Amino acid sequence: MHEITGLELSPKKVEYLKFLLGKGDLVRTTDISSELNVDPSTTTKTINDLSESGYVDHVPYRGVHLTEKGRVNAEFFVNRHNILSLMLTHYGLSPEEACDEVSRLESFVSKPAIDIICNAMGHPTVSGCGSISHSSCGSHH
């Protein structure tokens, strides 16, 4: 398994993986385009890039699903979002404000930094954005 840095993908590609994780099974590219509000040709190009990098499998005319590598990364990306949003709520932002702010910056925060923040917060299990799993942050709570 490759080592996750948290910085290997663009914010848009992170968004694709998080969306696919939330959907579970095969997702049609048209559903991705409409949900993420991107042109179908852009979706196709991004899915091809993610497929070449081993994050997704694309079954022509059927849909897209995460590979094991994609799933592990997507789970980290969701946890990163939730940990950062929880951190911001500790400094006075509402859960909604924290989620919005984190959506703009999360792709630029490395896994080592997230692991340190998660540890300093005592490995929380929930934030305003959802649950937090610790399989990816060096703890087995």
Tell me about this structure.
This protein has 141 residues and is mostly helical. It contains six helices and four strands; from the N terminus they run H-H-H-E-E-H-H-H-E-E. The protein has helices at 11-23, 29-36, 40-52, 68-89, 95-105, 111-120, and strands spanning 56-59, 63-66, 126-127, 130-131. The strands form two sheets. It has a two-stranded antiparallel ribbon with strand order 1-2. The longest helix is centred in the middle third of the chain and has 22 residues, at 68-89. It is globular and about 45 Å long. It starts with 10 loop residues before the first helix and ends in a 10-residue tail after the last strand. The mean pLDDT is 86.
Summarize the helices and strands and which ones pair or pack.
Elements: H1 11-23, H2 29-36, H3 40-52, E1 56-59, E2 63-66, H4 68-89, H5 95-105, H6 111-120, E3 126-127, E4 130-131
Antiparallel strand pairs: 1-2, 3-4
Helix pairs in contact: 1-4, 2-3, 4-5, 4-6
Task: Please tag this protein with its features.
141 residues, mainly alpha, 9% strand, globular
User: Which residues form runs of ≥5 with pLDDT under 50?
Assistant: none
Tell me the number of helical segments per DSSP (H or I, 4 or more residues long): 6
Helical residue percent band: 40-55%
Secondary structure: number of strands = 4
Overall mean pLDDT score?
A: 86
Overall SS class: mainly alpha
Reported for the largest beta sheet, the result is:
2 strands, antiparallel
Shape verdict: globular
Order of helices and strands: HHHEEHHHEE
Q: Provide the gyration radius in Å.
A: 15 Å
Main-sheet strand order equals 1-2
Distance between the termini: 22 Å
